[in-house]
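Quick one: structure tokens for this chain, please?
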Amino acid sequence: MFTKWIYRYEQTLTLVAFIAIVAGILIRIFLKDIAVMGDALLIFATAIAMLPIGLRAIQALRFKMFSIELLISIAVIGALFIGEFIEAAVVTFLFLFGSYLEKKTLERTRRSIQSLTELSPEEALIKQADGSRTLVSIEEVSKGDRIILTAGSRVPVDGHIIEGEGTFNEASITGESVPLTKRQQDTLYSSTILESGYVEMIADKVGEDTAFAKIIDLIEEAQETKSNTERFLDRFAKWYTPAVIVLATIVGLITWNLHLAITFLVIACPGALIIGAPVSSVAGIGNGAKHGVLIKGSDIMETLAHIDVMVFDKTGTLTKGQPELLRVQTYNNPPHDLLGLIGTLEQTSEHHLAHAITSYAEQHHVLTDYVVESTTPIKGKGIAGQVDHQQLVVGNRALMQDHHIDISQAEQDALYEEQTGHTLVFAAINGKLAAVLSIKDEVREDAKQAIDLMKQHGVERTIMLTGDNAHTARVIAEQLDIDEVEAGLLPEDKTAYVKQLQNQGYHVAMAGDGINDAPAIATADIGLAMGNGGTDISMETADIVLMADRLKQYAHAFLLAKATHLNIKQNIWIAMLTVFALLIGVLLGGVNLAIGMFIHEASVLVVIFNAMRLIKFKIKGEDLNETTQTTIRNPDMPYLYQEN
């Protein structure tokens, strides 16, 4: 009870100590006849200030830890013993006041993270079955509820639009402030804002399952992790503090100067050294969150700063992951409902290319009502199945070869399409080639700028790993100035390639967005997932998640990690040089106990303020400005077969 009271009123105790110190010093200067009263006030101020300091020192000793508070306690007791009442009182006050300032400035570094939690909506307007509207708390919203959104409303849960249209600000999720136009069936995320329009949505994910709730959880967990540097400094401080006590004792025994020994204790306090790395890491993680980059810990930040090889998946990472079916070339007199059959089978797949085919078939109303009798997805190759008693095989060249399907008659057409950067999907019915589907996926607008920027700042090699064909992969690699391409890979091939790079001594980062990328992402030193369009499994596996699906965020994360690592080094040097300078000052007789404490606390604040610069970090010298975005849809193309 007493302990809680002391900690609760620590600021009040600091103020009381300050008033007592000022009064004591004034009495000693101007009322020398009652100077003993001034000494009494100084001793009183020391005792008051020592309450929280001494309690923390005792608590640390219970866990067999030598804390900074222990050094201060020993020094203050020594100062009182030799009659240095002013120095004893000033040291305790400066330590408490410095701790108060540290706490306040540290709160500013966490504010960008804490402000995110304030974006969580508290209420939702539910539309009942009879058309009536009910305002309920967010905890009462269930999956399947129909929710009404008007201009200015904050989306309460994750879901999809079933009626209406509007522009949404998704900065709380993606870090991008450019409004995004959304219509029926488009996905909405909790905490985003409907800036204009009217929308009715269906709740798909509620409570802790929403994307926003997961973001908050990830950020809170990230702040608790420690980098290798932080763990080293913790171990260093564990031995450094008792070493300081031993050295101070030796100094006192050699010189028989107790004042010098206790001054040595104060100026050798490792406060700035201990706080330097954690405060930089917290500021860096907060900056990332503000820009839509979720970095899952200080250790991740430190590793990212040393990456020298960046590996990219193609589809959905370097490209937009919104492929469009451009052309269907048919062979061997296929059935008239060919695309309907293919689309029906592809509806069972979650692959990007499958979505392109089914979207096209839906738009042109050719999807059949046939029942899919069997289906077998083949990782990295495609899908096989039976639809309306017909055996379909749909996928890449390797899948055709596995099923002994002759595609030689399509090679010339296929080569032409691949050389233009298109991805090909071969379709066979009952063992014969029926069609080649040409699909295009646009390269992300910011991809080349982001890759160039990372190359300028220490990335030695950029590599594309893809399951797509070599011709298409090389076309995209040339556009983006990627150094190396490995095409036609299965998921296990990508993982093996990443391991090979690591065995060569490289620090590897792998960026991807699909289920197929999850093993390679998990294997790499740093795994990065595209959050908005990515799968849950790749986001769970990844160390870093880009919520806006923009590679400029990757460049931001990489340069932020470099800046954070440099900032930590600066803080360590500031702390060490301060202690070194104070030691010289003490040995030369120019630094007393109070001045030493003042400079020590000032160095801690300098370290914190230096770290706070990371909160405002942004990429300089690169024009990576956002452009207006809308939801991208397949163009209305004529439904045309070209018979070979």
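Residues 551-587 form the longest helix (37 residues).
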